[in-house]
Design a protein that fits this description.
CATH class of the largest domain: Alpha Beta
Number of domains: 2
Radius of gyration: 24 Å
Bound molecules: nicotinamide-adenine-dinucleotide
CATH topology of the largest domain: Aldehyde Dehydrogenase, Chain A, domain 1
CATH architecture of the largest domain: 3-Layer(aba) Sandwich
Number of helices: 15
Shape: globular
Strand order of the largest sheet: 15-16-17-14-13-19-20
Number of strands: 23
Length: about 500
């Protein structure tokens, strides 16, 4: 089972505290423990909330073998229509157990319930339906060709699954980003072994119950828990039984995974870090730009790959815009996930908080003007032990500072003035990352011009995080390799085979 007996007694918790869960691996349709356990602590108050079974080589091998066997089992014999029906049942299963997924995601991340209820869980379910619809409707190509004997030949393309897909996931939107990969992988007829982040093991494990209930054959969906190097992540990416690897996470982890995938020349899809710029022109709709920029800087405590950490504001608007951002940031109340007035949750862990705070300290040392925040909020009671930081806005540093160049992945932004369109395009592009941008202007020609000039995978105009799941998603430069989403996912999750028939 995903959630077995409480083990509070052995973990030093009082009887009044919620039970500590055991989170198991899900291999070949069954939950399996191991001899090794690691602790999962709540980001809210550092309380032990789960003990997680760490998969070793043996468990990862078993999961990969189960996934290989399932390729040629009942799963491999299904028609597209039958697969589509099962994936719809998986989506419905998530909806049916919405509250369980919500509770598990919020427990692991500490994020506000209102956020997880509207984004994480519904999008996690939708990913199965969207990709089921894509494979159901995908057209094929065919070409007639002349031959010397006059009879001719016909070429047509068919798509086949790539095989066993290793899925390595981050912690910031755990269910959503995992199903974003598992949905298309299964829709295309592959089998998967998922390695969720060590920080957020619960929803991936819970999905195993839904898979079984939906009639997904055993071995099609497997979950192994653990860390990266010398743990489940590395064992999975180096396993010769894995045919392709899809990854979301930090750029340097992606590079390590790409090296691992070179053995056996296996394809990778990498969705990686960002240092996204918002560009606010003086002709923008001021209120919309402020509201959108506040969301892009602070949603999910800034732990969104597409989030903004650099804000370029045209000089005539600069002071007014900074003042409005300050006011908005100071309205964001940190608090418990279930409280209605909570505007921001904690960071994912103490370790991540240390990283974010190191940038807060660095900004101060470099002489930044701290417009708001810059430290740790004063939290009541046991929340004092949690991974909280203040939403933070700086001015007074330039593009060459580490605060403007490096991904911090926290609720913070450096705001800088600019004078001309050409200048701001150059500055936004002068960064090794290229994931997303948000452009705020009411000048239509400028909107098109700037969106075409910024080197990113996604350019939003007068919006942020507005996602049509049929569109291509991915990063330019060091933010990624490959595109997923809609039919673009087919390029990674299928092999295109050309059949040439001589008539
Ligand atoms: P991370 O790279 O630390 O970890 C991601 C996953 O990789 C985890 O499951 C981890 O255990 C695993 N891992 C680590 N080292 C590994 C190795 N050597 N071999 C195999 N697996 C390994 O990333 P994170 O801290 O979980 O997530 C935050 C990062 O993810 C940020 O950089 C953020 O920008 C990025 N991100 C990108 C996107 C995108 O779509 N581009 C989306 C979300 C998050």
């Amino acid at each position: 089972m995903y959630d077995t007996q409480p083990i509070a007694a052995s973990s030093g918790q009082s009887a009044t505290q919620p039970a500590v869960r055991q989170i198991l691996n899900f291999i070949d349709g069954k939950y399996r423990g191991t001899g090794n356990w690691f602790d999962k602590r709540s980001p809210l108050d550092n309380r032990l909330i789960a003990r997680v079974a760490e998969a070793g080589c043996a468990e990862v091998d078993a999961a990969v073998q189960a996934a290989r066997a399932a390729l040629s089992g009942p799963w491999g014999g299904l028609t597209v229509a039958q697969r589509v029906e099962i994936l719809y049942a998986v989506a419905d299963g998530i909806e049916r157990r919405f509250d369980d997924f919500l509770e598990a995601e919020v427990a692991d991340t500490g994020k506000p319930v209102s956020l997880a209820r509207h984004i994480d869980i519904p999008r996690g379910a939708a990913n199965f339906k969207v990709f089921a619809d894509v494979v159901k409707n995908v057209p094929g190509e065919s070409f007639e060709m002349p031959t010397q004997d006059g009879a001719g030949a016909i070429n047509y393309a068919i798509r086949r699954p790539v095989g066993v897909v290793g899925v390595i996931c981050p912690w910031n939107l755990p269910l959503l980003l995992m199903t974003w990969k598992v949905g298309p992988a299964l829709a295309c007829g592959n089998t998967v072994v998922v390695k969720p982040s060590e920080e957020t093991p619960q929803t991936a494990a819970l999905l195993g119950e839904v898979m079984n209930a939906a009639g997904v054959p055993r071995g099609v969906y497997n979950v192994v828990h653990g860390f990266g190097p010398q743990s489940a992540g590395e064992f999975l990416t180096t396993s010769p039984g894995v045919n392709a690897i899809t990854f979301t996470g930090e750029t340097r982890t992606g590079a390590a995974i790409m090296k691992a995938a070179a053995d056996g020349a296996r394809p990778v899809s990498l969705e990686m870090g960002g240092k996204n710029a918002a560009i606010v022109f003086a002709d923008c709709d001021f209120d919309a730009a402020v509201e959108g920029t506040l969301r892009s800087c602070f949603a999910n405590a800034g732990q969104v790959c597409l989030g903004t950490e650099r804000v370029y504001v045209e000089r005539p608007l600069f002071d007014r815009f900074v003042a409005a951002l300050k006011e908005g940031a100071e309205r964001l109340r940190p608090g418990r996930p279930e409280a209605e007035d909570t505007g921001m949750g904690p960071l994912i862990s103490q370790e991540h908080r240390n990283k974010v705070l190191s940038y807060y300290h660095k900004a101060a040392e470099l002489g930044a003007t701290v417009v708001t925040g810059g430290g740790v909020p004063d939290m009541p009671g046991e929340l004092r032990e949690g991974a909280w930081v203040q939403p933070t806005i700086w001015t007074g540093l330039g593009d060459d500072s580490p605060i403007a160049r490096e991904e911090i992945f926290g609720p913070c932004a450096l705001v800088m003035p600019f004078d001309t369109e050409a200048e701001v395009i150059g500055r936004a592009n002068a960064n090794e990352y290229g994931l997303a941008t948000a452009i705020w202007t009411t000048n239509l020609a400028r909107a098109h011009r700037v969106a075409g000039a910024i080197e990113v995978g996604i350019a939003w105009v007068n919006s942020w995080f507005l996602r049509d799941l049929r569109t291509a998603f991915g990063g330019a430069k060091q933010s990624g390799i490959g595109r997923e989403g809609g039919v673009h996912s087919l390029e990674f999750y299928t092999e295109l085979r050309n059949v040439c028939i001589k008539l």
